[in-house]
């Protein structure tokens, strides 16, 4: 599978729990990868707006119905079964199309981490048209810069440290 990362040339910084933010990104990437057919690219992008960081992950999978979109961020919701990859057979795998092998927790973790950082996760999809998952995280303002232009480890309210998490995707 191909994973494209759109680079706009600007670093994107978020103040928060670096471990949880990395966990959120890993789950988002794993979901998109699992639902993108072989030979079909998926895209990941991040951009800064005036007051937030917007992360978008798009797959070219089978998409979701409106009912599925309402449940996709719920704990234990199994998207591979919902996306038509097969019927659950009670053994943790599905019949007639394979299983992603997931627990149904990945996207609920994405939403929980986003909400814990004052943001939100949402999905836009249509059956047969793939999905675009969008995570929006607030940015309180410009981070202080050191003399050499690098961001300092500024403290956010509540003691959270500024982090510049980087994620590498190897497939």
From TrEMBL:
Residues 93-104 have a biased composition (Gly residues). Residues 1-141 form the Histidine kinase domain. The keyword Transcription does not apply. SMART domains: HATPase_c (SM00387). CDD domains: HATPase (cd00075). Residues 83-104, 144-171 are annotated as: Disordered. It catalyses: ATP + protein L-histidine = ADP + protein N-phospho-L-histidine. Its EC number is 2.7.13.3. This is histidine kinase. It is an enzyme of class 2 (transferase). It holds the Pfam family HATPase_c. One of its GO terms (molecular function) is protein histidine kinase activity. It comes from the Bacteria. One of its GO terms (biological process) is phosphorelay signal transduction system. Keywords: Kinase, Transferase, Two-component regulatory system.
């Amino acid at each position: 599978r191909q994973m494209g990362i759109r680079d706009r040339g600007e670093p994107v910084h978020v103040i928060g729990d670096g471990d949880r933010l990395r966990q959120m990104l890993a789950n988002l990437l794993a979901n998109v990868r699992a639902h993108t057919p072989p030979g079909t690219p998926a895209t990941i992008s991040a951009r800064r707006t005036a007051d937030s960081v917007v992360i978008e992950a798009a797959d070219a999978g089978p998409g979701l119905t409106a009912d599925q979109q309402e449940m996709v961020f719920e704990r234990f919701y199994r998207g591979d079964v919902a996306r038509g990859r097969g019927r659950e057979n009670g053994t943790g795998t599905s019949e007639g199309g394979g299983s992603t092998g997931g627990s149904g927790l990945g996207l609920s973790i994405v939403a929980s981490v986003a909400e814990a950082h004052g943001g939100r996760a949402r999905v836009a999809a249509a059956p047969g048209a793939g999905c675009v998952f969008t995570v929006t995280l607030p940015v309180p303002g410009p981070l202080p810069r050191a003399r050499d232009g690098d961001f300092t480890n500024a403290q956010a309210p509540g003691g959270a440290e500024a982090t510049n998490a980087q994620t590498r995707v190897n497939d």
